[in-house]
Design goal:
Elements (H helix, E strand, L loop, with lengths): L4 E3 L1 H6 L12 H15 L6 H4 L1 H12 L7 H4 L2 E3 L9 E12 L5 E11 L4 E2 L1 H12 L2 E2 L1 H16 L3 E10 H4 L10 E6 L1 H5 L1 H12 L4
The protein binds guanosine-5'-triphosphate and zinc ion.
Keywords: GTP-binding, Hydrolase, Metal-binding, Nucleotide-binding, One-carbon metabolism, Zinc
GO molecular function: GTP binding; GTP cyclohydrolase I activity; zinc ion binding
Catalytic activity: GTP + H2O = 7,8-dihydroneopterin 3'-triphosphate + formate + H(+)
Length: 213
């Protein structure tokens, strides 16, 4: 791709960082909390099989909640200005993700579909998937995550419109509580032309189905 790379850092610094600011506990405090939860579950944190578990859980949290240390705006901070006149919809569908619900701290997982109409250049396709992960790797509701993905793309790229659809299964509805495995939740967020024009939303849904039986 014969593309000119343009930095959007000036625009990026205009907007507030989206990383939540909290005072983190020490690693020892985190591990002690895991030991407490093991006891709350009914087991003995000192038995051999569980002795290393607090350390592993604290480490796993680093990956599962890596989104707190990332800024989606920085990920989108690079556009390819010239893509041989392309101005139509770009849709990356079936982006798999794992998140944790903020109510029960158990996983919900599924696929995100992200579309936008470029205005001044396009962004690397992988960046759209990275943006999904930034918000998925936090304590979330599906609605908030869907809105955050659409909003940050809209804010940084200033496209003619953004459409995001998230399709997920919540383990808090499967493994506990109401116990309804297989129930899926769909959420959408539209900006710009997708919000204003129902025909554009219809086109987004048509493209989502394209090539599928
Ligand atoms: N809107 C929304 N609700 C969610 C999401 N993830 C989990 N929930 C819901 O959060 C609600 C929490 O309800 P509460 O009554 O406070 O908690 P609870 O007693 O554990 O509820 P049950 O899950 O019905 O047993 C449940 O209805 C969950 O299904 C989400 O991403 N979005
Ligand atoms: Zn939940």
């Amino acid at each position: 791709m014969d593309a000119v790379v343009k930095s959007l850092s000036a625009r990026v610094t205009e907007v507030a960082a989206d990383k939540p600011k909290i005072e983190k506990p020490t690693r020892e405090e985190a591990e002690a909390a895991v030991r407490t939860l093991i006891r709350w579950a009914g087991d003995d944190p000192e038995r051999e099989g569980l002795r290393d578990t607090p350390r592993r859980v604290a480490k796993a949290y680093g990956q599962l909640f890596a989104g707190y240390g990332e800024d989606a705006r920085e990920i989108l901070n690079k556009v390819f200005e010239e893509v041989e006149g392309y101005g139509d919809m770009v849709l990356v569908r079936d982006i798999p993700f794992h998140a944790h619900c903020e109510h029960h701290m158990v996983p919900f997982m599924g696929k995100a579909h992200v579309a936008y109409y470029p205005s001044a250049g396009v962004v690397g396709l992988s960046k759209l998937a990275r943006v999904v992960d930034v918000f998925a790797r936090r304590l979330q509701t599906q609605e908030t995550m869907t809105a955050q993905i659409a909003e940050v793309i809209d804010e940084v790229l200033r496209p003619r419109g953004v459409a995001v659809m998230v399709d997920a299964e919540h383990m808090c509805m499967t493994m506990r509580g109401v116990q309804k495995p297989g129930a899926s939740t769909l959420t959408t967020q539209f900006t710009g032309v997708f919000r204003q024009d129902p025909a554009e939303q219809a086109r987004f849904f048509t493209l989502l189905r394209a090539g599928r039986s």
